[in-house]
UniProtKB/TrEMBL annotation:
Protein name per its UniProtKB record: Glycerol operon regulatory protein
Keywords: DNA-binding, Glycerol metabolism, Transcription, Transcription regulation
Function: May be an activator protein for the gylABX operon.
Domain of life: Bacteria
IclR-ED domain sequence ranges: 79-263
InterPro entries, A to Z: GAF-like_dom_sf, HTH_MetabolicPath_Reg, Tscrpt_reg_IclR_C, Tscrpt_reg_IclR_N, WH-like_DNA-bd_sf, WH_DNA-bd_sf
GO molecular function: DNA binding; DNA-binding transcription factor activity
GO annotation terms (biological process): glycerol metabolic process; negative regulation of DNA-templated transcription
Gene: iclR_2
Sequence ranges assigned to domain HTH iclR-type in this UniProt record: 16-78
């Protein structure tokens, strides 16, 4: 009784256990490769099943959890990735990436940039411009639809199928800029399959006419995609046969940054 009276007199004390349990659930879901059933969450987080259901329902309302009712599974929601990308947008990642992007520009002669996923958009947080090259629409602080950009596709390809479905539930979520790009969720899923198979993403004229990009994802120690490294070049100046060489340089830069974040770089 004494402890209850002390808790009652302390502002916010009654919320501490719930907050701890919520963070425990988030940490567990972040470590899973795919959505999981509630029983597994309850066991892993040492929660009563009813408490787990209540927490997951509240977290789903706030966007931190995605509920897949047909499969009876729960996974991370878009809001959880916004928190993760918020960390990635801060100084540590930009400081780590600045020299790597400058080296990429020196090797290729094209503009390079770093972007993070923010809901259905990518947010550009760093740009290194090649000498004599004009500024691009992908300037620092600009947001663009993730499914149209090479950076966004590289990041989306690293998410689970359930997370992509939750982010793009219908064709209404797939906006256009230049009358190009995927127009249905199934077309986007096929595009992401191709991206995973290649190991890098591409776009050609879907953001700006006459410009194309190649990009690869930077992964953290949980193997989550936290940023996209991209090169953008004028289509008229680059032979199609040379695009693979640019993609190789981009993948090397992304792998270097992945290792700096203690992630596992793909050979």
């Amino acid at each position: 009784m004494q402890q209850q009276r002390e808790d009652a007199g302390t502002p916010g004390a009654s919320q501490v256990p719930a907050a701890t349990r919520t963070l425990r659930v988030l940490r567990f879901l972040a470590g899973q490769p795919d959505p999981v059933p509630v029983d597994r969450i309850a066991r892993a987080c040492d929660l009563p099943r009813s408490t787990a259901y209540h927490l997951l329902a509240v977290m789903a309302e706030e966007g931190f959890v995605t509920h897949l009712p047909e499969e009876h599974l729960y996974g991370l929601g878009v809001a959880a990735f916004e928190v993760g990308s918020g960390y990635a947008r801060q100084v540590p990642l930009q400081r780590i990436a600045r020299h790597a992007l400058a080296t990429l520009v020196d090797r290729t002669g094209h503009n390079a940039h770093l972007a993070v996923l923010h809901g259905r958009d990518v947010l550009y947080v760093l740009e290194e411009r090649a000498p004599g090259r004009p500024p691009l629409v992908t300037d620092v602080g600009v947001r663009l639809p993730a499914h149209l950009t090479a950076s966004g596709r590289a990041l989306l390809a690293g998410l689970s199928a359930a997370q992509v479905r939750a982010t793009y539930p219908s064709g209404d979520a797939l906006v256009e800029r230049t009358d190009r790009g995927p127009r249905t969720p199934s077309a986007l899923r096929e595009l992401l399959v191709q991206t995973r198979q290649r190991g890098h993403a591409t776009e050609d004229g879907e953001v700006s006419e006459g410009m194309a990009s190649v990009a690869a994802a930077v992964r953290d120690h949980h193997d989550h995609p936290v940023a996209g490294v991209a090169l953008t070049y004028p289509v008229a100046e680059v032979d199609p046969a040379d695009v693979d060489a640019l993609a190789t340089q981009v993948r090397r830069t992304a792998a270097q940054l992945t290792r700096r974040l203690r992630g596992r770089a793909t050979p």
